[in-house]
């Protein structure tokens, strides 16, 4: 319940933290974004809503816009790098390669080929999808996507996500209608991307099923 309350009322909690602890808020924000993107078991932290509220608070002068953008882009990029490294190091060891029934070499090779070909756009778009953005870099690591290619799209996606959402909050967060409906907006930021992912997965499954029957 405390986590749900923090997610839905992140504006009030963040404002209270700034009032009580001042510049330490930047360390807290860095930690939250890093953990959400860097620890595969922490996909439920409020990344999008938090960034939007940071932008809104920067728009009224409570926080620094350039510092927030720069620091949280760094947190997002480093978090993804951590998650990718965990997947790259532990993934094959969990499967124990050919000695394990859990490991399917053909599936592994297909996943590797997919991430080499389409992984870039997956990494970028996943930034805007709650839950998916936590798992995408881990899967890229397990699939052995090259570090160089992953890093390019990691930086691109992190910059677009953090910069875009904070900037949206900066310009629109202080609008009275937005402030009055912030809880609904946060719910939309959580649910809409998730529904789009589920719809895409359902369509892909139907397409694969139809191809298998054909």
User: Average pLDDT across residues?
Assistant: 77
Order of helices and strands: HHHHHHHHHH
Radius of gyration: 19 Å
> Structural class of the helices, strands and pairings?
mainly alpha
Fraction of helical residues: over 70%
Low-confidence residue ranges: none
Please report the total strand number as a whole number: 0
Counting DSSP H or I runs of 4 or more residues, the number of helices is 10
Distance between the termini: 48 Å
The rough form would be described as: globular
How would you sum up the major sheet? Answer: none
Strand coverage percent: under 5%
Total number of domains: 1
What order do the helices and strands come in, and which of them pair?
Elements: H1 2-8, H2 10-21, H3 24-38, H4 47-59, H5 65-95, H6 105-126, H7 132-142, H8 147-172, H9 176-180, H10 182-213
Description:
The protein has 214 residues and is mainly alpha-helical. It has one domain (2-213). It has ten helices and no strands. It is globular and about 55 Å long. It starts with a helix and ends with a helix.
């Amino acid at each position: 319940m405390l986590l749900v309350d923090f997610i839905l009322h992140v504006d009030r909690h963040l404002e209270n933290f700034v009032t009580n602890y001042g510049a330490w808020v930047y360390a807290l924000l860095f930690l939250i974004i890093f953990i959400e993107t860097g620890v595969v078991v922490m996909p439920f932290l409020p990344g999008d809503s938090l960034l939007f509220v940071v932008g809104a608070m920067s728009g009224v002068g409570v926080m620094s816009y350039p510092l927030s953008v720069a620091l949280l882009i760094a947190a997002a990029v480093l978090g993804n790098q951590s998650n990718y490294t965990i997947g790259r190091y532990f993934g094959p060891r969990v499967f124990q390669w050919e000695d394990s029934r859990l490991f399917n070499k053909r599936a592994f090779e297909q996943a590797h080929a997919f991430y080499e070909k389409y992984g870039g756009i997956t990494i970028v778009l996943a930034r805007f999808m709650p839950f998916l953005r936590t798992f995408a870099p881990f899967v890229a690591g397990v699939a052995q996507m090259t570090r160089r290619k992953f890093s390019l799209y990691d930086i691109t996606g992190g910059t677009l996500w953090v910069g875009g959402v904070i900037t949206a909050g900066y310009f629109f967060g202080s609008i009275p209608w937005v402030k009055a409906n912030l809880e609904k907006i946060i719910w939309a930021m959580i649910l809409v991307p998730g529904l789009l992912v589920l719809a895409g997965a359902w369509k892909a499954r139907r397409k694969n099923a139809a191809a298998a029957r054909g």
